[in-house]
Design a protein that fits this description.
The chain is an all-beta fold. It contains one helix and 35 strands. The longest helix has 6 residues, at 303-308.
């Protein structure tokens, strides 16, 4: 095998490919140093190697005595419940926690709640509806005296003072966003660039694979970059079918995202992935997947884009609905977790055997995955043969005390994972 001009790190990296209970692994022969095309082309099954399945999970809720399971030495506790589809958590600089509550249903709560631990005893003692009457809110951000909310159709900001528990005044719409989307692609996440000069916005596709026409996908399947006032919009990266979780690797300017890939090509296509995001990069959707593998439904449509498709860093299982992404920048967990990535996998519907329904951990070293992905928070599946699950994890947030919070939108619960007694 010829080496690229980039330095090759000489070790084998196992990629977890399928999901819960499946030992099918992909193997890569090395990692290139740097940001671009970090994994060599993975060996993927052919499209339609298996029929496209419809296997929706049945959520039964958590029964008495049951809760998610973490590795030895960790403990899992219910942090809060009684929400209406808690999707995302944001911790403000002052330690207040904001929870966006929204769903695809007509009865969507369309609100943001605030949780505050006033006496710093590790338990919240203030819980209020912070902001109501939104349009499927998801990502949140505090920056420069404003509270930003990414609704499905707009980026809105409100005047904000640390310590307030409710916003009632009208916000300022600073950017229209393309609304709605196929199979929960209505979510719009936001994070600030490390220097605080830009806001990154994730916008998923409006379809599975462009079947409604690409004229309906303008500004979609992208990560957008704007100024804090909403001006200066640029496409930071394109061809990302449904990028949801976004995070900068600790101490770096390198943006990473978790991407929910396309359906209907078989049980093991296409793997969801996490990847560092190259500015100006194209990641394939809808013409190619996981590198320059042409999608059979788009054959011959855009050969130049197929050729330029970048290979993602790490496959994390087909149809796992990998949504949450957070790097562990705390100091309460053992050393092996430092700077590693936690991935919230909401779980499959387009796979004959359930995959996802867990939080995965990937060790990192020097800004790159350094070992095999492993299960971190499991126990969400009750009976795989009957597709029965207790809940479905979404967001993973590392809060200031070093613990990890996980939203479970199907059971309206937030779980907390701590290490030690």
């Amino acid at each position: 095998m010829k080496k690229s001009r980039s330095r090759i790190i000489p070790f084998m990296v196992l990629l977890l490919y399928a999901g819960t209970g499946n030992a099918n692994l992909l193997m890569s022969t090395g990692i290139q140093a740097g940001i671009s095309d970090t994994f060599l082309q993975a060996k993927l099954p052919k499209p339609y190697a298996t029929k496209s399945a419809v296997n929706n999970s049945r959520v039964i809720g958590w029964i008495e005595g049951k809760k998610p399971l973490a590795p030895a030495g960790f403990r899992v506790e219910k942090f809060a419940d009684g929400f209406q589809n808690p999707r995302w958590i944001y911790e403000a600089p002052n330690g207040d926690l904001f929870v966006s509550e929204a769903s695809t249903l007509p009865t969507s709560a369309n609100q943001i709640s605030i949780l505050r631990d006033s006496d710093k005893d590790g338990k919240f003692d203030v819980r209020e509806v912070f902001l109501a009457n939104q349009n499927r809110p998801f990502g949140m951000l505090v920056m420069d005296g404003y509270f930003y909310v990414a609704n499905t159709d707009a980026l809105i900001r409100y005047r904000y003072k640390p310590g307030q528990t409710r916003i009632t005044e009208t916000g300022e719409k600073i950017l229209d966003l393309p609304a709605g989307g196929y199979n929960n692609h209505w979510t719009r996440n936001i994070i600030a660039s490390p220097d605080g000069k830009k806001i990154m916005i994730s916008v998923g596709s409006g379809s599975n694979n462009g079947e409604n026409g690409m004229q309906h996908e303008v500004r979609r399947a992208n990560i957008l970059e704007v100024n804090p006032d909403g001006s200066g919009e640029k496409i930071y990266a394109a061809g990302l079918r449904n990028p949801v979780g976004m995070a900068y690797y600790p101490g770096s300017q390198i943006l990473w995202t978790a991407v929910n890939e396309r359906d209907e090509l078989g049980d093991d296509l296409v793997p969801d992935y996490i990847t560092s995001v190259r500015q100006g990069g194209f990641y394939g959707w809808p013409y190619a997947y996981f590198g320059p593998n042409e999608d059979p439904t788009m054959r011959g449509r855009a050969p130049d884009l197929v050729k330029k498709t970048l290979v993602p860093d790490l496959a994390v299982g087909a149809h796992t609905a990998s949504l949450g992404l957070a790097f562990y920048d705390g100091n309460a967990f053992p050393e092996k977790y430092r700077n590693g990535a936690f991935i919230g996998q909401h779980g499959s519907w387009n796979r004959s055997k359930l995959s996802g329904y867990k939080v995965m951990f990937v060790p990192f070293k020097d800004g790159k995955p350094s070992g095999r992905p492993e299960d971190f928070l499991t126990g969400f599946i009750d009976d795989a043969a009957k597709s029965k699950v207790y809940g479905r994890p979404v967001c993973v947030t590392i809060i200031s005390d070093g613990s990890v919070l996980v939203t479970d939108d199907a059971s309206n619960t937030i779980w907390q994972v701590r290490f030690g007694k």
